[in-house]
Amino acid sequence: GKESSTKVSTTTSSRVAILRYLAAAVTAVLLTYYCPRTVLRKGDESIDIRYTIGMVVRFVTTIVSLFCVHNSNPGYLTADIVEEVCQDDGLTLLGYEGDEQKVNTSLLDETTTEES
Mean of the pLDDT values across residues 73-97? Predict the structure, then answer.
């Protein structure tokens, strides 16, 4: 009943998200290809095949990456979880060990004062 309709709804919204992303990506590639004075054009306005191939490779890599991570469950990081992990590792929330943050901050203050 209700659980299957949620799955269908999630699947539909997932497909819509992919289609929107693909449409935006294809539009960007087409605009880049057809617009004059882009990096894809040589001085005489002919297509530079090296840059065109590079653009296509980047486009395909981006799309493959999308499909690799889409619908994955990376988990959720909250400040509490990060703080707990940092405490387990003996670090502060910013990744400094012990008094290291104070030393780095004082060094920054000295260079800022010298520049002024």
Answer: 74
